[in-house]
Amino acid sequence: MNTEYLESFAKVVECRSLAEAARRLHLTSGAVAARIRILEGELATTLVQRSGQTLTPTEAGMRIYDRAKELIQS
């Protein structure tokens, strides 16, 4: 699992916006969305619920977010 993808996912959760996370990461929205999709595929679970332009982490997403923050800060 790519830690940059976990970083992208964590930033999306913090910003609650794919576009804002992409701006802060200096990536395109498409690149961040692709990273989230890849993580979801690797973990075989949905990490975020999409509602318009707002993204909300699922229950599984919050568990992954908590672990991702530990890994990123190490």
Short description:
The protein is mostly helical and 74 residues long. It is 69% helix and 11% strand.
Describe the overall structure.
- The chain is globular and about 25 Å long.
- Strand 1 and strand 2 form a beta hairpin.
- The protein is mainly alpha-helical and 74 residues long.
- Helix 1 crosses helix 3, helix 1 crosses helix 4 and helix 2 packs across helix 3.
- The model has no long low-confidence stretch (mean pLDDT 92).
What is this structure's SSE topology?
Elements (H helix, E strand, L loop, with lengths): L2 H13 L2 H8 L3 H15 L4 E4 L2 E4 L1 H15 L1
Antiparallel strand pairs: 1-2
Residue share in helix: 55-70%
Strand order of the largest sheet: 1-2
What is Rg?
11 Å
The oligomeric state of the chains shown is single chain
Give the SSE string.
HHHEEH
Q: Total helix count?
A: 4
Main pleated sheet: 2 strands, antiparallel
Task: Give descriptors for this structure.
single chain, 74 residues, mainly alpha, two-stranded antiparallel sheet, 2 strands
